[in-house]
Structures are given as structure tokens and as C-alpha cells.
Amino acid sequence: MHPLLRKAIRERFGKLNRLQQDAFREISSGKSVLIIAPTGSGKTEAAVLPVFNEILEEGLKPISALYIAPLKALNRDLLERLQWWGKRLGISVEVRHGDTSAYRKAKQVKNPPQMLIITPETLGVILTVKSLRKHLENVKFVIVDEIAELVDNKRGAQLLLGLERLAEIADFRRIGMTATVGNEEEVREWLKADTIVKPSWRKNYRFRVLYPSPTKDDMKLARELSLSPEIAARLRLLWEIVEEHGRALIFTNTRQFAEILAHRLKAWGKPVEVHHGSLSREARIKAEKALKEGRIKALICTSSMELGIDIGDVDVVIQYMSPRQVNRLVQRVGRAKHRIGEVSEGYIITSNVEDYIQSLVIAKHALEGRFEAVEPMGGLDVLAHFIVGLLIEYKKLPRERPYEIARRAYVYRDLSWSDYLDVLRVLEDARLIGYDEEKNLLYLRRGAFQYYYENLSTIPDEVSWRVFDAGSGHVIGRLDESFIMDLEEGMDFVMSGKSWIVLKIDDEARLLKVRESKSLESAIPSWEGEMIPVPFSVALDVGRLKRKLAFDFEKGLKLLEGVEFSEVELRRAFGEIRDEPFSTDRDIVVESTPKALIIHADFGNRANEALGRLVHSLLILRYGRVFSVRSQGHAIVFKTPFQLNPEEVKGYLYREPETLEFIVSRALRDSHAYRWRMLNVAKRFGALRRDAKIRRIERLFEGTVIERETLNELYHDKVDVRKGKLVLEMLKRGSLRVKTELRREPSTLAKLNMTVGGEFLLSGVLERDEILELFRERLLDHEVILVCTNCGWHAKTRAIRLQNVDLRQCPRCGSKMLAVAHPIDAEEFLPVLEKVRHGRPLERKEERTYRKLLKAADLVDSYGFEAVLALASYGTGPDTAARILAQYKGDALIVALMERERQFIRTRRFWVDKKEEKESEE
Predict the structure, then answer these.
(1) 176 or 844: whose pLDDT is higher?
(2) Cα(144)–Cα(191) distance, rounded to whole angstroms?
(3) Within a 10 A sphere around the Cβ of 352, how many other Cβ atoms?
């Protein structure tokens, strides 16, 4: 080991732990390595220290190492951590992504760092930059962080193909890091690592699953906070845990509920902050610092805090409602007391009987180390982008060469020649590439560059849809397209504390025509798209536990050994359903009520989706399109205009397993989800422009590779046909049976599954007001710069201080051109204004900066303080603000700004600023 590194290790943590020693030995011996270890094991240092050592020992040229992290937020945290080592070792470490300034990017080309931190999308950019390629030839190491976030999606497929492109010009070792997964060997093969390095010790966890019932004190708290006694009981218990342990992370499953829970705790006077992906970077950093410095006791968060963002020591993790997956629970609870040898403590506070039993099973799986496998995903649309990228690099290539390179990547190892040719045909038809038959060469065509840079991210652009209430004749809000894709005409959904029925989906106008349905039964909440799917293995074991508890309660208890829970709470919970219909691992129950039919089935979201599509299709054949269906982890819910015969539906489940895929694929082709997916797949293929709107897209690409890829994507993400077939085979063999129930009133579990999200809806419209007020407070507290676009006078302030200020006159020169700007925009504007005042010409980027603030000043002049609020909102520039301000006023404006911010940040996380890349690197 190099003396400088030895000295830095002593300063940082004395000596390497066993995991770091093993990784150091394996990597230094020349192997590619996959490091699998829980949070707090020192994975990052285990991966980078041998790399730093080799850079020092061998005097490697820059760029010696690429560090690829899936999230930009993680990049920023990593940069601080890795630069600490870099400063002590004399090794330069820098970050590069879409937010990196053009100046910094140009500097990296002239004087490249020895280690460059990037996102997967940035790899696709730098491979095509001529001035950087000569430095990429020096790469000896590629480190991939948080691999589990990449394996099961198209970002991961794109990364693997990018690494194979890099392997054409550089000889490098691969180092991967991941938390524990259920298919370690497959993930090793995915990365092409030679060996796996794991800790010699096993991480210890304590899980306590709670199902509180209200006390007299909770009744009082419920009245104080205008909540139900059950929610008050959960809040009281939650805060007791925080007080007992100290610094806490409280995880929820959706961003909307993180906001609501934080607001309720703040209303109770508790020191908490919220942290999730739809908050600005500044808000997240502020919340992280408040926890680190002890100014708050708890951070209420979503999956944004699962990854390795440094927030200091955490004493306890509380999961509010079931984590739904074992991997999620372990990753989250691993944030507490994460040092080696410490026991990570986690509490799960559950809200209903199904939530409780599911949480008990997940905690047991976690203690046994039964983790979910991450399912690798390829994609022919990603392959199309890869082929164009290669041709941008090499201009001309033999036709078989991209095929040979692609097949080296794990997810394309079985790529057929016929599929490859189909992809080439789509690219040729789109006039992105050409093929010279005589010379057997593929070559680039004119539109290829625009297509390539527009499709650097595999994540679809989020477009919001207007929701139009036919009753009032007004637009009542907006919804993300990813939620709209799961709706069909006739379905109910929940928005703003009310239930609405879909009358018409207008793809071309991106408009959802609705009317209030006045029923929350079987309505889909607008946050449902964020919900984590329950896996087949977890759902099946929930069914097994219910069966054991019903047959012999004491034997059922033995299934939960090691999990901490109250037997009294379990008896109370199971008592709620004991005498009513419930499914098990050996029983499906078809329960028919006057307004709904519920198939109780413990097979998880994706398998139930396949079974739900099967039954829905057969019902449509007989009765027409009068039903809507929604599949959940433990039930399939049909909204029905009349009471169905459950025996008839039972018969539909005894179909031949071989027919399932055909029926499901036909049903999917007729869904809005299919059209939305196909639109995005076609864009990634280059068959459609990014701004294209096609009314009957399913007909346009019928029978093509685009249709096949759309179905493959749906099968991977939403509908598990293989597990659905397995259920039908179990029915055929007799290892699974179907019971039927005809009821006047739905059972306890039926009610739970018919009204998803009761936790959110108990406060009705108050919930909407709570969220709006929280968002308004955040806007008012936002730091802005008031700038005179005439003389350059400027002052830093918070938006709230401008509420009663005359915004129409500059205090220095009297100009009416006062703009409100983000501090960075103001900083860029002032030198540009100086050039304008001295009559000097502006560069293109300066021209944009100047016009941007002039537009902002126009808005302030026209709309006053409402313009301040709009411009203070994250992701709302003057152009977008002008559109929103022209349409909305008062509360409607706040709703529109909140939806815009949510949409912007959800897509912005993975953006690469294409214009900036091209300007700095052409």
C-alpha cells in the first residue's frame, strides 16, 4: 500500500475493516469485483481505496477511473466524501452531469481529473465527445454504485451497453457495489465481475411490528388535531419511539403521505422535516443538515433516503405502514446504527389487519435473509440507441459489429440475429442510419445526432394532463401521465380528497374528462403509481400465515420467531377477519357484493394483474365494457353495475394456463397503459419525434418490433404472466382451490381493498388544504433576489417579505422593470447587464440570460406578488410561469405550481442538459 494512502486511512478511521481488506486484496490482484454489504459497511472505501492505491503506485494517467452513481443527489454527497481522500492523496476527483456548468465541462476536457463521478446517462454523452475520448482510453477502473437500482430497468441495460462501448477503447476492471439482493450470482454475471466480496459478519437487525389501538389519551389528541382516534394512536406511538431513541428516520411509501405526516406532526408541535424526491435540492440539504445538527428529532422521508446520502448517525428507523418488500425494509432499517457490530433497530407501525400481517411476514423474511431477486432487464429500444451511439463514434461499421458488441452485455447475451435486424430496419425507416449492401456497412444519417441526444435518458418525459370536471365546466387540477396510463374510461380515482369517474381520455389534448362519483369505493388514489409492488413470495407467505393462524394459532406464532410483536395485537388483528372470507396460500376466495366483486388472492401485485386482466377480458366478452378492475397485492377488485354470480367468475379461473398470455396480451393492447408505453418505446426507437402525439398508435406499429418491446416492458414492470400461469397450474393440479361468497355487505378485507388509501382520506378535503398550506409556506420561505433589470440594483430576501411591498418601482432608479430571480440566475444576469449598458454584444447564452430576467420583470409588473410565488417555485422559469399565471389565480395557482414542481423534479433527477453538452463539447 502506498504510504500516502496508509497515512490517510489512519487519519480517517485507523485501519481498514475486514470487508475493505478483502476488497483491497481482490481488486489489487487484478480482478473485477462485486461488493455486497449492508448500509454502513464501508462499501464506498472498499471500492475506491484500491483504485486510489493503484493510481498512486502505477502513476496512472487521467481519466484513470469512472465512478458511476444512479442519482445526482448521490453524486454530490459522494463528491465531498471522495474529495476528502483526493486532497490527502493528491488525486483529482470531479463530478459531471447535466447540471455541471459549461465552464467546468470545458475545464475537464483540458485538464481531466483522475477520477470522474458521472451518472449512467453522462457515460452516453462523454463517449461521443471527441476531445474526451483520448482521456477515456486511459480508464482502468469503472466503479458502479447502487447496482440494485439499475439491474431491473432500462437504465441498467443502457449502462451495460455503454460499458461495452467503453471496452472498445479501454481495458478496465469493473467494481460494483450493492446492498443485499436475492440473486447475488446473477448480479455478479450482470456486472461481469470475477468474484463477490461480502462481509464475514452478518448484520444484526431488530424488527418490532406494531398494531396500536386508541387509548383515552388518543381520543383527546384526535380532537386536538382533528384526526380519527386510530391515526392519533399511531402518531402518539410513533413519537414515543422517537423520544425513547433519539435521532430518527421515519419512512413512508409515497411523497404525498410524507408531506401529510410531517404536517400533522408539525401541527402537534413536533420538531420534524420532510425529505423526498419532489423537493428542491436546497430543501433536501436544509432538512439533512437540521437532522445532523440536532435541530430536529426526525426526518420523514421516502426512498430518497434509502441510498447512501450522509446524514450522520441515526438511532432508529420507523417505517409507517408496511414496507411492502424485504429489500426495502432492510435498506431502510440499515440506516440506523449502521456501524459494524451495532444492531439496527426498526419499528413498523401498521394501519390495518392486512398491513399488519404483511409487515410481520416481511420482517421474518428479512431476519432469515430471504431477499427479493432483482430481475435484469434489456430492451430493443435501448439497443437501437446504442447502435446509433456506436455510429456517432465510428461513422461506419460492418453490419454485424454492433450485434457482436451488444451480445457481450449480460442482458443481450441471447439477442437473436432476427431481432437485431428488426431493430436496424426501424432505424433505417426512421432515416437515422443507412446500410450499404455492397460494402456491408452501416452508416449515419442526418437526424441521428438529435435522436441520440434527445434519448440519453430511458425515463419517459413526464407530461401532466389537465383534469376537466364536466359538472362545473372547470379544470380542477393536473395529474402525471404515469398515473393516467393506469386509468381507463369508467374507472374511479381519488384526487383532492374526492372521488371522480373517468368519462373520456383525450390523448391528443392530454385532457381527462371527469365528473364527481361521490363514492370512494374502488377508486384509485392519485399516489397509487408511487406504491411499491408486493412480491409474489411475500404475498404467498402472508396467505400461509393466515392459514396457519386459522388452523392452529400457536403453530402460526412459530412462523414468526425472531420478530418482535405483541401476541395480544396479533390475536386482535386476526380476530377482525377470522369469521369472514380470507384467502390463503391454498385458497382463492371470490366474494360478490351488489356493487363490487373481490377476488381475494395472495399472489402479489404483478401476478394478480395478470389474473385480473384474464377475468376482466372474459367478463367483457359476456357482458360488454361495464366493469373496471384494479389489482393489488392481496386482492383483485372489480367495480360492477350488478351483483355477479361468484361461481361464474370461479369458472373463469379454471382456464388452461397456456391461454393466459394470449388473453392478457389482447387485453393489454386495448389499454391506455399500452398506448402510453408504446408511445415512449417508439420515441426511444426513433420511430417518432419526442413531441409526437399519435391518436391510434397501437395500429401504427401493430406486428412490429415496437409492439413486441412494448409488451415485454409491461410484462417486466406491471404484469407477471409467468407467475399468473403458475397460479392457474396450481388450480389445475388441485393444490389451490377457489371458494365463493355471495354477500350483501362486503367483508372487512373487501372493504380495505375497495377503499385503498383510507389513511389518506380520513381527513377528506382537509388533507388537500393541509398539503396546499404546506406548499404555500415553503414558497413564502423561499430565498429570492429582487433585481432591477434597468440599473442592476438587487437585494436578497425571502418571498414572504415582498407580500406587501410595492414591486412596481426600483428604489434606486425608479424603473418599473423589477424581476424576481433565483440567486444563481441573478448572479449570471448582473455582468450581462453591464455589457448591455456599455453597448457590448452578447453571446448566445448571455442573450438567453438577459431575456429570461426581462420576462420575469414583465411578469412581476403584470401579476404582482402572484408572479413572485410562481418564480419562487422550483422548476418554474418565466415561460412556464407566464402560462400558469394566465390560467390560474388564488388557490388554483398554488395547486398548479405544486403539480408543476412535482412533475419537474420527478423528470429532472435524471436529465442531461443536451444544449449545454453540445455547446461545450462540439
Answers:
(1) 176
(2) 9
(3) 20
